[in-house]
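User: Sequence recovery, please. Input:
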């Protein structure tokens, strides 16, 4: 499954540099002028997970296959995007297609890299982007809600649901608040809200792009962003796009030495992935055998047949049971045989809720 994150922000904040580093490609041209990235570049990234290596070592797996996620590098935004200024319509359309927004904010001083507003203020930058997304949603709902209210008054059941949930959202937007603060009362309202595809309904991860010297502890700029994120109930991480770019091409040993010299324990990619997983409510389960050890992703709360469906629709359709071993038990008991002998291999049915780190083997019949 994985997830699709759109990297957004004002021009020249480090979006494309970060994208290139994260995907270890040069797919997105990084240059010191606005609209360098015109078509959204998409990079598939394997999610690093040290648990997968340990499982593969115990099982003697011939191949290791991490779960995948996508990063989408989206063109820089300017004021007026909601009215089509710059590449506004395309920018907003590309955001509509992603699961979460990775909002890169410039948190460094550098006279050699121009800023569109000729100043460094990550909070103002964030508000510029947020305002354009909010205005786009506002324009959409100011057309839809009155039409739904009119049909609702005539007795249309679906229109009553639309008028109720999107009417609540419209009031939030008019107060300058994002759509994600909407609280649907039931499954029908949740369905209608999701179908609206509102831009400010998407979860947001703030990425503070700092200079190399501040990569470990951050700086005054990033501290302000963390305060903003806390106030919103959002998430923020500190990353140095310059350091991530330097890591490209290094082997694992070189990376660890380099990161240690910089006072870091992991890459920015790892921090972004972990924050993204939390943001979207995702977890990882594993399938392990002599041919391959593989990681898969599902939403928290997914049941065993849903997890089976991530592997193949036939497994979900013909699901019988899931042979389940907790990750810690698999490691402590040295694999499937040891777990089975110790009574730690469980037979779970259709109502079993998958836990992070579960090692699963599905029985099915179609």
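Assistant: Recovered sequence (366 residues):
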């Amino acid at each position: 499954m994985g997830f699709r994150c759109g990297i957004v922000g004002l021009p020249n904040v480090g979006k494309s540099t970060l994208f290139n580093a994260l995907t270890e490609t040069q797919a997105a041209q990084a240059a010191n002028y606005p609209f360098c990235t015109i078509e959204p570049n998409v990079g598939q990234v394997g999610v690093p997970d040290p648990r997968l290596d340990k499982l593969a070592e115990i099982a003697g797996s011939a191949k290791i296959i991490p779960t995948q996620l996508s990063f989408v590098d989206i063109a820089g935004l300017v004021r007026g995007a909601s009215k089509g200024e710059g590449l506004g319509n395309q920018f907003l359309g590309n955001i509509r297609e992603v699961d979460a927004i990775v909002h890169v904010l410039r948190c460094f001083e550098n006279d050699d890299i121009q800023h569109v507003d000729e100043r460094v203020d990550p909070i103002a930058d964030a508000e510029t982007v947020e305002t354009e997304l909010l205005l786009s949603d506002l324009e959409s709902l100011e057309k839809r809600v009155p039409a739904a209210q009119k049909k609702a008054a005539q007795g249309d059941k679906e229109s009553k649901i639309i008028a109720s949930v999107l009417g609540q959202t419209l009031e939030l937007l008019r107060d300058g608040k994002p759509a994600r603060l909407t609280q649907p009362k039931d499954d029908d309202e949740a369905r209608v809200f999701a179908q609206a595809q509102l831009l400010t309904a998407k979860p947001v991860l703030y990425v503070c792009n700092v200079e190399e010297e501040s990569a470990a502890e951050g700086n005054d700029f990033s501290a302000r962003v963390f305060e903003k994120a806390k106030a919103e109930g959002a998430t923020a991480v500190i990353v140095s796009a310059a350091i991530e770019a330097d890591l490209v091409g290094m082997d694992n040993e070189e990376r660890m030495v380099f990161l240690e010299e910089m006072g870091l324990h992991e890459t920015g990619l790892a921090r972004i992935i972990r924050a993204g997983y939390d943001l979207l409510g995702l977890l990882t389960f594993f399938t392990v055998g002599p041919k391959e050890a593989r990681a898969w992703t599902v939403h928290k709360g997914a049941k065993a047949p849903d997890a089976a469906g991530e592997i193949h629709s036939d497994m979900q359709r013909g699901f019988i049971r899931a042979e389940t071993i907790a990750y810690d038990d698999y490691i402590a008991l040295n694999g499937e045989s040891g777990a089975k002998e110790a009574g730690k291999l469980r037979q779970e049915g259709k109502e079993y809720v998958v836990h992070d780190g579960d090692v699963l083997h599905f029985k099915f019949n179609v």
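Confidence is low (pLDDT under 50) at residues 26-38.
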